[in-house]
Every structure is written in structure tokens, then in C-alpha cells.
Amino acid sequence: MAATEQTIKQVNTLGDTDYKYGFSTELDEIRPPKGLNEDIIKFISAQKDEPEWMLDWRLNAFKVFNKLPKPEWAKLNIPEIDYQDCYYYSIPKSLKDKPKSLDEIDPEIIKTYEKLGIPLKEQKMLSGIAVDAVFDSVSVATTYKKQLSDLGIVFCSISEAVKTHPDLVKKYLGSVIPVSDHSFAALNSAVFTDGSFIYIPEGVRCPVELSTYFRINAMNTGQFERTLIIADKDSYVSYLEGCTAPMRDENQLHAANVELVALDNAEIKYSTVQNWYPGDKEGKGGIYNFVTKRGACRGKNSKISWTQVETGSAITWKYPSCILQGDNSKGEFYSVAITNNMQQADTGTKMIHIGKNTSSKIISKGISAGKANNTYRGLVNILSKAKNARNFTQCDSLLIGNKCGAHTVPYIESSNSDSMVEHEATTSKINEDQLFYCQQRGLNSEDAVGLIVNGFCKEVLQHLPMEFAVEAQKLVAISLEGSVG
Amino acid sequence: MLEIKNLHVSIEEKKIIKGLNLTINKGEVHALMGPNGSGKSTLSYVLSGKDKYEIDNGTIEYNEKNLLELDVDERANEGLFLAFQYPMEIPGVQTSFFLKTAINSKRKYLGQSEMDALEFAKLMKSKAEELNINTEMLKRDLNVNYSGGEKKKQEILQMSMLSPKMAILDETDSGLDIDALRIVSEGVNKLKSKENSFLVITHYQRLLNYIKPDFVHIIADGRIVKSGDYSLALELEEKGYEEISKSA
Ligand SMILES: Nc1ncnc2c1ncn2[C@@H]1O[C@H](COP(=O)(O)OP(=O)(O)O)[C@@H](O)[C@H]1O
Ligand SMILES: [Mg+2]
Predict the structure, then answer these.
(1) CA dist A89 → A41, A440, B108, B191 (Å)
(2) Is there a contact between B210 and B179 (Cβ–Cβ < 8 Å)?
(3) pLDDT tens digits for A371-422?
(4) Whole-prediction pTM
């Protein structure tokens, strides 16, 4: 596939620094002053021409945010975040009046996306992936729109959906992640800037992969994206998000909220390849990635599957979860989390079993190198009505070197005697004899590590859409560069 | 091709190779025979560059280069191949993918472009057929759940695809039944040319019925105690290691 090849080439050629997406783009930006207050929220809402109900929703969320305590950080070592020292909105001036077609987009932005290997140009759409790209705070272009709308599929930015599909947005926004869930959920609800909106109508199987690329470009700008995906009865959709950010010495904040709703017999497959800038070897700079992702299997026989490849960010804090309400519904979580140098990751999932015969599967692969720390934290909660619920959890950790750490923290709560919960966990060091064997066959030490780690992650990577699996393998290898030898 | 002079090797303070000399010229096949624990595998690891082995003394020259200065992968890409006594399992890595990665690593090192997918598939198929390896097996993870014999065949497949200049076979015959032994030996013989050399490590004279060595060396306690031609292997079969070592 052209898009993927191009991405790989870009990955290989970009820059001579370790982080391959570390360029930034020179653009005139529109930015309100730093700080978090009602005026900023009103400014954001006005920039987006939002209806009043949306502004009210935001202002209410801000009130909630001010009342909520900060989350407990557990294994993470997180410096105090100064919310007033951050910009909450930034758009390139040329995007202020949203371009009608791709030809109207600032060539600088197109160039940035080309560097990232994202197919924005029409001819590249043949590749079969519909792409929405979020540049700092706004959605740049949504490709493939026509073909999708013929099927009744809505795939647009959330800002657009607020205007074009207010009923759906009103009904589902905040219905999976309540505003009051925790402080980042409330913060995102107050200041969210853009993200994707998808609605798949009853009985429709979305024929292409839907995809969004997020990029933080502007300095000191937090990115608060909001994604909402609704799969109506008997529908199917596969969605992939990719993320990059330029190298900056300061930390940047990314606090996304993603909500999924699957109705009767519907299936949502959500894949993430997260490669935000991780900071340098000493731990300077990098993205703070605090993400709330939650899917509700509301209908019977519905299914939500999360697949994530987390290689970037200075700090990652995310637990994509499934609320298994519908009888016979299924939740899956496949995760690869790689931390190198000074990176920290605390990630895992929550599977909440509510309906009868619900089942969940968790496969987590954590890889630590350098001085990094990697924690799997998961909760399997089986409520009393969830008769015959099933869970299988497998957590494997791989250590490269002896200064890194891996931790597994599984919580299991079961209020039901006929449920079955299985948990397996392993921790191992990368095998020197395997490395030697690969090197004896001509692979250099980094390629050998990449190969072995990719093998270790295979169970997860094979759940990615095929077009992205290759890219992900490449990323896995790149993110471990410098970890041996 | 390869010249080892007065080699002394120890691991964790324990002396294992104690003054070993061996010269292998282009186009020659040498057999190295010796009892368990005499240092055969250690020699193969030292030649291929495994770390943790301390070179206390001696030199190794390989194609006019100081072998000991090269990294493991450099040695491999310069044409040195080790068929392991105990091949490693690599879960999650398809055997065919591993083969392709190995071939392309070498091509990259030599400044050549990657082998295209079709050419690779053809090469793999023909080599696998020669060794009577079912190509279905190459879709499985490398050496995972392979039988002992399948692993050894796999090593020879890798060897024939990489066509090394200097191949070291460490007890490739152990674990092979008589048919597999014949097929593997044919694979080795096919590769044999005036341009490359072999060091065949084995316990048993049996293998040497199929792969005819130009020289036979007997190693005991980290030293070559006796060298000769093929007839030495027969003599060894008759008398056993102890007597031969004593008479040396
Ligand atoms: N990693 C090691 N640590 C300590 N001793 C070792 C190690 N590897 C090999 N040895 C010892 O070195 C000697 C030679 O071993 P090896 O070269 O494997 O013999 P061979 O292959 O001839 O059977 C044996 O005594 C063995 O126990
Ligand atoms: Mg041995």
C-alpha cells in the first residue's frame, strides 16, 4: 500500500535526530493568550461558531473540573501541571476559514503531512483509507467523504458534527465518559478543540478503514481532542488513529477523550499507533499523554476491540476500557507499550461486565529499555448480574538492560460465582542467546532487538489493520534504537 | 581463509582452549573431532564472536582480516557462518521472514539492494526442496516446536541460502536420522567449492562417510592433539579418544 510505504520511507529518512517526526512547521497561528478560564472557553466556542448548547456544556464541564481532585498517579512520577501556563487553542491562520477542498489547504501543512506519510492528496485516496487529520486544534481535511456519505456514514470532525448532527452529538457526547469522571475528562470536555466524529448507520459495514492523524505542532499548546464513534445496530467500523508531535524542550499536554458506542450486533475496532515525542535521553521535553478512552457495548452481541501500540510520549497514562452492558457482548484489549530512556507508561484496561454471557480478553505486551518504567494496570470487574461472564488476561513484560522496570497490577473483582477469570503473567529479559543467533545471521544488534521484540508483540500487532501492521513493526524497532550495545 | 595461532580462551576464569593452532585454506574441508567438553563448541563461538569469552592469547586471521576485531554481524556478513549445535527458537518470527531478513542484512552490508520478494521466494523454495523441507514449515515461527532434526535441517537451509565462505557445522549430525543425515550432507556437498571452506565438528565418524574431509583433527582438553587425513577418523572409530590422545 502506497500510504504505508511512504510512511516507512519517511520514518527512515526524516532528520538525523533519534525522533523521526521531530520537525516543526513554520506557520502563522491564531492563539488566544495562555491560561485556563471561562473567557478562553468562550473564545474556543466562538472560533468554532458553536451553538449555545455546546458552549453551556463546556462551561458546565469547567465548573466540574474546578471541583474535582487530581487523579492519583500511582506508579507515575508526574510534575505539577500548571494549567495557566498553557495555550488551549491554536490554529494555523490559513485554516481559519476552513478550506472547502484539499487544494485550498496551506501547502506547508500538506508538506507536513507528506513528511509524516499521510495520504491527503486525492490520488492517494485510492489506497482505501479515509483520513481525517487534526493539526494542533483543527481538523484539516476529511478525505473520502462522498463515498462514505452515499452509505449514510458520517465521518467528519467533531466541530462539524456539532453543527450538522446536533441530535447525535447531544445524545451520545459524555454518555460513556461522564464529565465528572475525573479531572482530565472534565478538562477535555471544557476545552476540547477537535477530533473525529463517526456514525455508522444500521446494517452498514464501513468498506474502508477510517483514520485520523493527530499532530501537535504549535509550541506550548495542549491538545484536547474529542472523538465520538457510534456504530448503530448490525454495523461495523474499523478506525485507526496515529499521533506525532515535533521535538520541543518543554513538555506538552495531550488529554484526549474518546467515546465509543456499539448498539445491538455492532462491532467497533479501534486501533492506535501513538508516537508522540518521548523527550530526549535525559527526559527533557516530550508529551504528557493523558487519555481517557472508553467504549460502551450497549447492545446485545456487540463487540468493541481496542488495539494500541504505544511507543511515544514522556508519560503515558491511559486505560481504554469496555463497558459490557449488552448480553453476550465482547470486549478486547490488545496492547503493546514500549518505554525507552526516561519514558514512563502506566497503561492497561478496564473490563466492566454487566450483561449476561459477556466476555473479555486482554493481551498486554510491555517492553522496557533504558531507565524506563512500564506498568500494566488493569481491572476486570464482574457485576452480580453478569451471569456466565468470562475473562482471559495475559500480561507479558520484556526487559532490555537492567536499569528499567516492569510492573503488573491486575485487579479482579467478581460478584458472581459462575463467572470465570483467568490471568497469566510473565516477565523476562531479552535473551542474549537469541540476540547472538540473529547477529550470527548478519543482523546488527538493533535490527536483532527489533526482530525479537516484534516477535514478542506479534499477538498484538496482528490485530492492527494490515496496512498499518508494517508501519507499527517499523516503529517498534525505531523506538528501541540505542537500547543495546 | 582461516588461521588460528596459539589460541587461549577462558570463560569465567576457567581455561577452556589452551594453545590451539589450526589453518584452513580455501576449498578445504576440515573435521574436528573430540570428546564432550573438549572445547569444540567454545571454538565455534569464539570464531563467530560471542561475548563473555576471554581471549587470553593468540591470533585469528580471516581472509586477511583480524577476525577478533570484527563484530558478530560483521563476521557473519563477511561470510562466516555457524550452524549451531542448539539452534535458538524465536517466537513470533516467521522462519521465512527471518531468512529474508538475514539475506537482506548481508546484501545491505555488501552495498547491494534488497532481494525482491519473488526472487527470494524462488530461492527459498528451491533450496528447501533440495533439503526435503516442506515449505509450509517455513511459515511457522523460527525453530518453535521444530523437532531436533528439523532444527538442524533449518540451519543447513540458512547456510545454503546465505552461501558462506567459511561454514562451521557444530554437531549438525546429532539428532538426525540416517535419511536426514544423507540429505543434509548432500546439501553441504552441493555448496562445497574451490572458493569456500568447512569446519565440520562431530563426535562420530559416521558423518564423514558423507562429507569427505581433507583433514581430520582430534581435540582434547582445548588442544589439537592429532591431525591427519580421513584415515584418522577411521582409526579413531576403532581405538576411541582415550587411546588416540595417549598415543599423541
Ligand atoms: N558458559 C560457560 N561457563 C562455564 N563453563 C563453560 C561454559 N561454556 C562451556 N563451558 C565449559 O567449557 C568446556 C568446553 O565446552 P564445549 O566447548 O561446549 O565442549 P564441546 O562442544 O567440545 O562438548 C566444558 O567443560 C564446559 O563445561
Ligand atoms: Mg558442543
Answers:
(1) 9, 53, 46, 67
(2) no
(3) 888 888 889 999 999 999 999 999 999 988 888 888 888 889 888 888 999 9
(4) 0.81
Domain containing A289 equals 2-318
Q: Are A206 and A153 in contact (CB under 8 A)?
A: yes
| Domain interval for residue B235 | 2-247
In this complex, which of B81, B82, B90 lies closest to A434 when CB atoms are compared?
Answer: B90
Distance from CA of B3 to the nearest CA of A (A): 20
Q: Is there a contact between B141 and A455 if contact means CB atoms under 8 Å apart? A: yes
Residue A298 lies in a domain: yes
Which cell is A98 given? Answer: 476552513
Q: Report the SS3 class of residue A11.
A: helix
The protein residue with its alpha carbon nearest to ligand 1, atom 27, reads B37
Instruction: Enter the ipTM.
Output: 0.96
> Which residue of B10, B16, B201 sits with most ligand 1 atoms within 8 Å of its CB, as the best mutation to test the pocket?
B16
Number of domains in chain B: 1
Residue A390 lies in a domain: no
Number of domains in chain A: 1
Round to whole Å and give the CA distance between A267 and A232.
9
Q: Are A316 and A310 in contact (CB under 8 A)?
A: yes
The DSSP call for residue B49 is T
Question: Is A248 inside a domain boundary?
Answer: yes
Of A227, A225, A218, A243, nearest to A87 by C-alpha is: A218
Q: In sequence order, which residues have a C-beta less than 8 Å from that of residue A246 and are 6 or more positions away? A: A21, A22, A23, A24, A25, A216, A217, A277
- Give burial (CB, 10 Å; 0-12/13-18/19+) of A1: middle
* Position in ligand 1 atom list of the atom nearest CA B219: 22
Domain membership flag for residue A462: no
- CATH number, domain containing residue B8: 3.40.50.300
Name A154's Cβ contacts closer than 8 Å, sequence gap at least 6: A148, A161, A164, A165, A168, A197, A198, A199
